[in-house]
Amino acid sequence: MDNKEILRFCLKKGFLLDKDVLGLFSGVEDVESIKLIIDRLGSYTQQKIITKNIFENNMEGVSKVFLTLPKEKQKKLEKLKIKLGLSIEISKETSVCVEPIEEEVCNQPAIEGVKVFPVEIQKNKKLEVKDFVKYFKTRFKDMREILEEHSELGNLVSINKISGNRQGVSIIGLVSSKRTTKNKNILLEVEDLTGKIKVLINASKKDLYQKAEDIALDSVLGFKGVGNREIFFVNDIIFPESMLLERKNSPVEEYALFIGDLHFGSKKFLEKSFLKFITYLSGKLPNTSEVEKIKYLFVGGDLVTGIGNYPNQERDLKIKNLEEQFSELAELLGKIRKDIKIIICPGNHDCVRLMEPQPILDKRYAWAISELENVILIQNPSTVNIGAKINFPGFNVLCYHGFSFPFYVNNIPKLMLQKAANSPEKIMKYLLKNRHLAPTHKSVQYYPFEKDAHLIRDVPDIFFAGHMHKSGISYYNNILMISASCWEGKTPYQEKFGNEPDHCKVPLLNLKTRAIKILDFEEDEDSN
Hints:
Blueprint: H1 3-13, E1 16-17, H2 19-25, H3 31-45, E2 49-50, H4 52-57, H5 59-67, H6 71-76, H7 78-83, E3 95-97, E4 114-117, E5 126-128, H8 129-147, E6 167-180, E7 186-191, E8 196-201, H9 206-213, E9 220-227, E10 231-238, E11 255-259, H10 271-281, E12 294-299, H11 322-333, E13 341-344, H12 363-370, E14 375-377, E15 382-386, E16 395-400, H13 405-411, H14 413-417, H15 424-434, E17 462-465, E18 472-476, E19 479-483, H16 492-496, E20 505-510, E21 516-520
Parallel strand pairs: 1-2, 8-10, 11-12, 12-13, 13-14, 16-17, 17-19
Antiparallel strand pairs: 3-5, 4-15, 6-7, 6-9, 7-8, 9-10, 11-20, 15-16, 18-19, 20-21
Helix pairs in contact: 1-3, 3-5, 11-12
């Protein structure tokens, strides 16, 4: 790369580039893409001096800058993304050391009425290329078992069993590549444990073509059609799907509440509104007789606003110390009735590692919350069972903060057309259809543990998520999907990306009747 050309470009644009950043760009031949990254990053951060810290402290924002580049340029810059920590290199040299996870992650005290199904996390494990290979093989086998239950996949064969003669068969495979041909057909490369094959979806089959458009890379799907070992022509695409035959009803009238994305510690935290919510839970608001029957409160991550999560965040902070953010929030949560179980899933602002599955809140900072007697800390993602009684199995609630959601909003045509960023339940439906919370390798940072934490092995009764700051409720195949609103006013950072958050909307679910009511606690916040 021509360093002088880059420096001249920066001078023309009014940017200063420190030598560490210039070093990161060394070895990249695509100078025009580097110019584009610098230009967009400068506009994104509003910084005139581009330093290495800007990249390290704003990984989510830098990822968004990369996503704005043409796809062919993104592929050429894969090594740069690895240098920046935005991608993991899968090669013979790959060796990542997993941080130690405390025993308490999976062994918290049991609380009556709540059962947590923890994600198994190996401790002190060095990751190598074989771990990634094993991860994808195990994931494929688990998905194949799910798909084999679909009766539509008749005459199912492995890819290496397809002969040179044209025949009608079904296959199950992982989609490793996807492109549109000059004739506007969609051409996939699909692989199983025995081989690979080219799979073609004809543009003339409109319904099928729309299905194919919405296929995510690395998803495991069933294909029914005709062909030989050279190419397979698809007549139907079968997704793994999530489905319940019926909706459960508790024999006892109890209620569950769902909130998320408090962002406590932000200047924009909607304190009056949250205090009204706490007052409601104390039964001190009129016409709220249901309060005494509320037994569960789910919190879907981003309890605090954290520090260093986006450019110039310090300007938006009311509380600039992470431990103080958690401790002061614990004082508010401590006012909630002790017979209400508070089930807390972490989010990307909560100072846990970004790579998923994420452990429970770090007690070095969140000790005050972990010490509350009615709080249950869970991993992200996690499944929790609530409301079990004699002769009633209870409800399985899949909790996921939702960090993968923006990727699918920006990459799946149907979700883009539906403007799913404003309707997160549409993203949730898409992921339930795929039986996976993050089917595409690059949609989220993750550890390749043998058991894929994002795979939806058991279909939940309720799927609860946050991250998008939008309230949403819907059913899909008898599965209740709930997306949490937020408790933070619109920040300059959100304005820059056109985010229109929903505030202080709390779904109240009657576990006996399955009736859902949206409670609105939003108050005028003079200081915001």
